[in-house]
Amino acid sequence: MATPLKTPTALQTLIDALRVLPGVGPKSAQRMAYHLLQRDRDGASRLSSALSSALTRIQHCERCNNFSEEPVCELCRSPRRDAALLCVVETPADLMMMEQARAYDGLYFVLLGRLSPLDGIGPRELNLDRLVKRATDGVVQETILATNFTVEGEATAHYIGEMLQPRGIKVSRIARGLPVGGELEYVDSGTLAQAVIERRAVA
């Protein structure tokens, strides 16, 4: 019986690395690796360079926790934003959706996740102490909870509301114009804009 062909170590390392991407399984990772090496080595080089640059230059904004090349991002530095409003979202993608809706002109705080005890994600992992410090800086007058309408997103919104309300901060929740179980990243901008406009106070 012939000995099975062994994948070169460097190629297997590339395939394994590509599998860290969401939704990419072994076969997809293999196809991507072969494509880059067979048909688009220039693209592979650009991808490698861009990833290396991003890992070196991208950090978290000290104020909103979003990705930034500066200690404080351009949005947080903008004098055109309403500093009295602070919108809490789960991910940078959710922040971008809020901006595309063009219904909000305040500032943000990006959690980079949501409470999920089964996955080992609690208040400490989400740096909620940083959020409390940001929301109680004496400038913020209203915190808008724009976490997703999933079980975890609702639990996260409830937990944050319970943390902030005793500190005298007005807390509101975007309206349920969004589908239950839906995620901001996949909602059309018109629906999201209406949800922001019709936000309600958190009981």
Class from secondary-structure proportions: alpha/beta
CATH hierarchy: architecture of the largest domain? 3-Layer(aba) Sandwich
Could you tell me the radius of gyration in angstroms?
A: 21 Å
Strand content: 5-15%
Tally the structural domains. 2
Number of alpha- plus pi-helical segments = 8
* Main sheet: strands, sense, barrel: 5 strands, mixed
Number of strands: 7
Q: Tags for this entry?
A:
5-stranded mixed sheet; alpha/beta; 2 domains; Dna Topoisomerase Vi A Subunit, Chain: A, domain 2; 203 residues; single chain; Helicase, Ruva Protein, domain 3; two-stranded antiparallel ribbon
Give the structure's gist in a few sentences.
By secondary structure, the protein is an alpha/beta fold. 42% of the residues lie in helices and 13% in strands. It has eight helices and seven strands.
Written account of the structure:
This protein is an alpha/beta fold and 203 residues long. It folds into two domains: 9-57, Helicase, Ruva Protein, domain 3 (Orthogonal Bundle); 67-201, Dna Topoisomerase Vi A Subunit, Chain: A, domain 2 (3-Layer(aba) Sandwich), CATH 3.40.1360.10. Helices cover 42% and strands 13% of the residues. The protein has eight helices and seven strands, in the order H-H-H-E-E-H-E-H-E-H-E-H-E-H-E. The chain has helices spanning 9-18, 26-38, 41-57, 74-77, 92-101, 128-135, 151-164, 189-197, and strands at 59-60, 67-68, 82-89, 106-110, 142-145, 170-173, 200-201. A five-stranded mixed β-sheet has the order 4-3-5-6-7. Strand 1 and strand 2 form a beta hairpin. Helix 5 (92-101) packs across helix 8 (189-197). The longest helix has 17 residues, at 41-57. The chain is elongated, with a radius of gyration of 21 Å. It starts with 8 loop residues before the first helix and ends with a strand. The mean pLDDT is 88.
